[in-house]
UniProtKB/TrEMBL annotation:
Gene name of the encoded protein: carA
Name of this chain's protein: Carbamoyl phosphate synthase small chain
Family label: Belongs to the CarA family.
Keywords: Amino-acid biosynthesis, Arginine biosynthesis, ATP-binding, Glutamine amidotransferase, Ligase, Nucleotide-binding, Pyrimidine biosynthesis
Subunit comment: Composed of two chains; the small (or glutamine) chain promotes the hydrolysis of glutamine to ammonia, which is used by the large (or ammonia) chain to synthesize carbamoyl phosphate. Tetramer of heterodimers (alpha,beta)4.
Native species: Salinicoccus kekensis
Amino acid sequence: MLNDIRYLVLEDGTVHEGYKLGADAESFGEIVFNTSMTGVQEIITDNSYTNQIITFSYPLVGSAGFNFEDSESLLPTAGGVVVREASEHPSNFRCDENLDQFLKRHGIPGISGVDTRSITKKIRTGGVMKAMITDSSDHDSTVSKIKDSTDATDQVASVSTRTPYISTGRGPRVALLDFGKKENIVRSLNHRGCDVTVLPHDTPAAQILDMKPHGVMLSNGPGNPEDVQVAIETVKGLIGKVPIFGICLGHQLIALAGGARSYKMKFGHRGANHPVKNLLTGKVEITTQNHGYAIDGNSLENTDFEVTHTALNDGSVEGLRHKSAPVFSVQYHPEAAAGPHETSYLYDQFIGLMTTEGGQTNA
């Protein structure tokens, strides 16, 4: 049984007593919530959660178990996991280990037995805040540590590949800038025949163009997009010279390169059921999302970009396209993993752009 006492302490002094889960370690980070009912392995291994403590609002977590194939990164960097109940005996023919075993193997501490829905409501009402998972019962000292702590920096650099590598295909050549990419981005491109070269986040535009790719993709990743100035400069050097498709952080970097502004959201969008309106078709699409920053729609007025998608829950910007260059982006995850696949057509749209705009100049 998971019955050793552990505490979740929030920056505002709130203390939740629960049971030890995962690694025998303390964890400090920004506490966020995810509303997904499934896809726990993919969520925890999404490096957009670097240094964040993930609260799952759904009460039973890990009932399908974990395997050695479905992770979105080999070395997950989430700061911690908070659940109401952790399934100790998952049931799935592909299961290799349970949640506790998975977290221990990756050195991620967690806590179970707490009211995750009350935590979710607190974050929704008051906004994201710092928190700590700890075994210490000296809560005043823990709160002081939390308040004295500083926000993490250089998160993208910590999760980006350090050396280029290729995931081979016979179709269009794609240069994928890795800001903390999900593996299913590569899979989605390979599935469509693309030859993908994964590049470090700080690869300059000139080096990318020298590779003569048919298109450039900007991945998801953690943290504040304004912290990744080197990538913003890279995108500036690519716009108008090669087709570009940005996802999540990549979407934000494209907007910033075009002169827009970003802002930190009160509690972000994290889940697999977020409705988005496609302004080009009028259709509503259900999307997977994981972001705490967004683009200020008003800041786009004097830029070369126009809004193509908006969130139905709060009206925030969910998609952009350049008015003349072959550049577009979305704030959500069309590759899903986990989540619905109804926006996967965006990869086909990218293939089409590379065929018409990138293939002739870089064949």
